[in-house]
Amino acid sequence: MEETDREAVATAVQRVAGMLQRPDQLDKVEQYRRREARKKASVEARLKAAIQSQLDGVRTGLSQLHNALNDVKDIQQSLIDVNKDWRQSINTIENLKDVKDAVVQHSQLAAAVENLKNIFSVPEIVRETQDLIERGELLQAHRKLMDLECSRDNLMYEQYRMDSKNTHDMNLIHTYFGDMQKLSEELAKQLWMVVQRSLVTVRRDPTLLVSVVRVIEREEKIDRRMLDRKKQTGFIPPGRPKKWKEKMFNILERTVSTRIEGTQADTRESDKMWLVRHLEIIRKYVLDDLLVAKTLLDQCFPPQYDIFNKLLNMYHQALSTRMQELAAEDLEANEIVSLLTWVLNTYKSTEMMGNSELSPEVDVNSLNPLISQNVVDQLLSKYMSTLTSNIIGWLRKALETDKKDWIKETEPENLVVLENLQKQYISVCLMPFLVHRYKDEAQLYKEEHLKNRQYPQCYVQYMIAVINNCQTFKESIISLKRKYLKIEMEDTLSSSHASMDATLDIIAKEGCSSLLDEVFMDLEPHLNELMTKKWLMGSNAVGTICVTVEDYFNDFARIKKPYKKTMTIEAHRRVVVEYIRAIMLKRISFKNAEERKEGAERMIKEAEQFRFLFKKLAAGSGEDTEGLCDIIEAIAEVIKLTDPSLLYLEVSTLVSKYPDIRDDHIAALLTVRGDASRDMKQTIIETLDQGPSQPNPNYVPIFKEITVPTLTVPKLLK
């Protein structure tokens, strides 16, 4: 306390010192004293009130503790009394066991009395239910069956409550209601028959199908109720849960599988098109069934059944199983194509699952593949292996047949012996075999003909067929690539295609060359008459040449483009080359100006005959028929020149137009003129060699193919 007093005094001194800092504050000492007195009184009042409140709380707490102590004592005494009474009544409770048993028995008897009418009428209800089932009144039959089951289940439940181990009484009740189980099975059979024919029933009698669904729904509710009671009591009636909803979907699944499998009406032995027919029937049945399920069946089932989507999944699974079974069979090549086409294309097309009437419920993009990619690859591998073997054999046979036809005395049909190749599924990778074999056989055919030109009789026609076959092959390859090959595969086969295309082009051009050789072998006697005395005297060699060429080209008209145009251009070029070669052979040397004029005019006239002929043959082809014949006319102008002093100028003009003219060509030409001396020839040639050459970039050299004989004419070299 002394410590506290000292602290209080120190605090007071400090406060007083704080209030009396200035002299003028001494006048307010009394005012300060009164204020502090008021504060002190207020603090003392609050302190007293707080102490009083705490004292009242302590007093109340002590009172409640006293009362609680008294209550505990009372409870303790009551418990002693209760314990005493309980010990005294144990014997009394044991004596009431008989009463308890009587109560249980009373409960059972009450249940028996309640179901007594049904118990005695069980045989009659069974007969009535059987009649209703036979008449197809399934809802009424099920109602009576439910009443019977309810009576049995209640009796068995009461027996279970009384004595769960008493199997004798349980069996007695079960036996008494034994016919009821048979009724349940018979009713189920009727239900499953309707379910199996649901897609037919829903069209003819949808009410019957609705009744079946209602029966199944009732059973589902009873199953749930019985399972709930089992959780509470441990008792469940025999035969529960029936799970008729689950059985219904199992029946539907088996029905769908049977329907898919049962569509195969034929075998390979009875019908080569068995698989195509089988797949088409499946397509039609599945599409029809799903349309019925969407428009009619869906309305007969509760929404939670989701019947359409479940049926869709069943059909998809059944189809997948069936397709895998078919894929596992020993299918032929055409059957593999039919199967893969159906699985990969038809199934998701508008002809089936992509049908507009099935949308939006059916999304083809969400459907899983019917067969795995591995199975697809195996089928493709098997198909290619079989097809390769078949086509190689077929091509060999076709080629042998074609070779035999080449020596026939009758013309080929349509001039395309192998045109039916377009109808085969020829893989591009197989074509090199045919192309190279065909090239070799065509060459042998030509060589055999050259040994004896009278044999075979239709050589020209069959050689035309060979040329046309090459073009047909080329067109077929392009068509098949566009039709069957994916874009990403084209890059891998482009080099093979280019090689085959080049080989086919070579075969065709060699065939064209062979035909032209045939023409020029017939023209050889008439070409030998050119630029001879007989020619100058009025030979009709050029007329015969034109008639012969035109006659041949009447047959050549059946050659396909572009080789027909190629033949015309090459024939034109070769005729001109042979004519110029006849000039360069120096078979004639004109003696005077008159002969030179006559010969030159004849050359110009014959050049015009050639021009007219090839313009006629090239009609519509766009070929320029003027340039080649102009060469003959240009040479004729050199021969026709009457003033020898202008000869150099005329020759230089000729050389400027046709820069591939060599010295020996000029010498031969001057020799044919007959008036140029050896020195003149030498001078002209040397002067031309020193002059500039400005060849026409569009000029195709022709003189380089013409050789001048060197045995009779000395070389004129610089």
UniProtKB/TrEMBL annotation:
One of its GO terms (cellular component) is exocyst. One of its GO terms (biological process) is exocytosis. InterPro entries: EXOC3/Sec6, EXOC3/Sec6_C. It holds the Pfam family Sec6. Signal peptide: none annotated. Keywords: Exocytosis. It comes from the Eukaryota. Coiled coil: none annotated. One of its GO terms (molecular function) is SNARE binding. PANTHER family: EXOCYST COMPLEX COMPONENT 3, EXOCYST COMPLEX COMPONENT SEC6-RELATED. Belongs to the SEC6 family. This is Exocyst complex component 3. It comes from Strix occidentalis caurina (northern spotted owl).
